[in-house]
Fold this protein.
Amino acid sequence: MEKVLSGKPVAQLINRTCINLITRYELKPQMVLIQVGNDPASTYYVQSIINSGGKLGCLTQLKILSDKISENELLAIIDEANHNPDVNGIMVQKPFPKHIKESKVNSAVNPEKDLDALHPLNLGKIMLEEEGFLPCTPAAVLFCMFYYGIETQGKHIVILGRSSVVGKPLANILLWKRTFANATVTICHSKTNNLAEFTTQADILITAMGKANFVTPDMIKENTIILDVGINDIILSNGETGYTGDVNYNLCYNKALAITPVPGGIGRITTSVLYLNLVNACLKSRNLYKSIDEYIKLIFMDNNEIY
């Protein structure tokens, strides 16, 4: 296993699968991407989405809305996309202003177009181990581990963060009775006492806290595998804005068996998964259903073929 778990080769395989499926089935995938406000981390991710879409043959309509927009106005924009037959997928970038309830937005998106799998129906399918969309970031973590041959069965995986976007769905996926899961999972959060007691037990540590450089060497055991989902903006010594993860990469590097960089790790894969979900939604609209296991086979086992 490589020491640095780059997201680039994983993303390339997923992108190639998207292109192959679009070519084979003559698809024209179209997404509506909504951003409310100008949160720096959100803007960074949205820009990477826009840059990737055109290369894959997907159309992305970006709607940047004021952080003063009312909840009803936002819901109306989502409803319009729900009823547009040309739109295959919808993504509403987090976070939202405080006056907008995340639960209302998640429930407003048509579950058949819900690319981030945050509708209650899609989250329920994850809990029940039923087929459906995989949330983008949890799927990126899963595909990263699959690509690098990281064994999860019987391993103790500790997740830092309990959000509905990453922590909770990822924990449920890792509990699935599948060869790529079957893990023992512990979720820690801001109210966890003696946090290091849990993190130092982790065979695999997954961080999704949104706290820059929070994890230090005293919080991990020797040869832990670290998957850093965090993307935090920081001010560099030259005064410019840079990005770092939840893990102090430089300090933890020598102690870890393997570690993802930030940027260039999980985030790179997440963007590709978003478009895989868009292609999946497009196929579903034409009753060309493919299961999660079929997608794993397409991405990691059959990718030398053109479909």
